[in-house]
Design goal:
By secondary structure, the chain is of the alpha/beta class. The chain folds into 2 domains: 213 residues, 3-Layer(aba) Sandwich (Rossmann fold), CATH 3.40.50; 160 residues, Glycogen Phosphorylase B (Rossmann fold, 3-Layer(aba) Sandwich). It has 18 helices and 13 strands. The C terminus is likely disordered.
Length: 395
């Protein structure tokens, strides 16, 4: 999202970033661009209590009906469940401060990533219109609990990053198809340059990047490495990311005697991840659920052959056998067979890597796709002054 925001600013859109939460990582671990953006981003949860109280008093005084409408909506979204209702009232409190900031900045429209509930409540309180980006997969897992139809109806327009995402929105809101825009994410092919190809690496370096969560299926990759090593293949898996599954993965690595064969590298910033790509021979993604992972785009741009699960929007990015290899999610044997195939066939690795970069450059170029998104903003905002401030909520 940061890269997209920076590209949109280059194209003349004035974007004020509002985040619900503060960054998870300390400033010293961020890239220069991340630090600069964090410094200019307004953060709702870290705002002083006095600012929060003042925002509610002003909203109540200026928009009493809207304030009441937003509070009632939050309670309705709680569906009579005490815990859920408490959460939604908290979202309402966040929405009032975020909306107050938008009004002070002169915004007439805002765009939200991953804060759609807060965004919905903003539109109930303030005379602001909303658009939103739906990345998946969490939004599509339980669209009724996500209130998909309600949010799409409240939005001026909806951006999905894949055709798969578009279909999922239509499933919940079939009458709202005219609101949906497919606008893909992307990477900078100039930044993600091809890394040196190695015909006979010792060991074959396999890389995966993602948070250590059950949905990412890192445990399956660990089992796959054990199988490959047992078959006599010289491979090593590096995992960039951290999360709740770390302890379980460490225990599994120890139980399978894979110390030195599986490296949990922990969280890495973008600069460090690029360094890890440079020494990778293969990229593997075993996830159960994804949108269209940008890490796959990055790896493909660097001509790293990818093995990924055949899920959600991934087949739109990787054409099986042409840009990479697709496997059935949860199928350890199929994943192992695909990686073994790449291990034994350096020319296939080269061909898939080169084709992958061409495909990313053609369809997932960051600058080109950001220009398409900017055109959508200008077209959808219609008669509004396109130089007005556009507030984009992001986490």
């Amino acid at each position: 999202m940061l890269r997209e925001v920076l590209e949109l600013r280059k194209l003349g859109l004035e974007i004020v970033a509002i985040s619900i939460r503060a960054p998870n990582d300390p400033m010293e671990r961020m890239t220069t661009e991340e630090r600069q953006e964090a410094a200019r981003t307004r953060t709702v949860n870290t705002a002083p209590l006095s600012a929060k109280v003042a925002a509610h008093l002003r909203a109540l005084g200026r928009y009493p009906r809207g304030y009441l409408r937003g509070l009632i909506e939050a309670i309705r979204l709680g569906a009579g469940r005490p815990r859920s209702t408490l959460y939604h009232v908290a979202y309402f409190a966040q929405a009032v401060l975020a909306g107050r900031w938008m009004m002070e900045l002169g915004c007439v429209h805002f765009h939200t990533h991953f804060s759609t509930t807060v965004g919905l409540l903003v539109t109930r309180v303030f005379p602001l219109t909303m658009s939103m980006s739906l990345h998946g997969p969490d939004e599509f897992r339980d669209p009724q609990a996500f209130r998909m139809a309600r949010k799409v109806q409240a939005a001026a327009w909806v951006r999905t990053i894949s055709e798969y995402g578009r279909a999922q929105v239509l499933r919940s809101a079939p009458a709202e198809g005219g609101k949906i825009e497919v606008s893909r994410l992307g990477v900078d092919p100039a930044l993600y340059q091809p890394r040196p190809h190695r015909d006979r690496p010792e060991p074959l370096e396999i890389l995966t990047v993602g948070r250590l969560a059950a949905v990412k299926a890192h445990g399956l990759l660990v089992a796959v490495v054990a199988r490959l090593v047992g078959d006599g293949l010289d491979v090593r898996l590096r995992v960039a990311g951290d999360g709740t599954e770390r302890a379980a993965l460490e225990a599994r690595i120890a139980a399978l005697h894979l110390d030195g064969r599986v490296i949990l590298a922990g969280w890495q910033n973008q600069d460090r991840v690029r360094e890890m790509y440079r020494v990778a021979d293969v990229f593997a993604l075993a996830s159960w659920l994804e949108g269209i992972p940008v890490v796959l785009m990055e790896a493909m741009a660097m001509e790293i052959p990818c093995v990924a699960t055949r899920i959600t929007g991934v087949p739109e990015l990787i054409r099986d056998g042409e840009d990479g290899l697709l496997v059935t999610p949860g199928d350890e044997g199929e994943m192992a067979a695909a990686l073994a195939k790449l291990y034994h066939d350096p020319e296939l690795r080269r061909r898939l890597g080169e084709s992958g970069r061409r495909h990313v450059a053609a369809e997932y170029d960051q600058s080109r796709n950001a220009a398409k998104l900017a055109e959508i903003f200008r077209r959808r905002l219609g008669a509004w002054d396109t130089q007005r401030k556009v507030s984009m909520e992001q986490i």
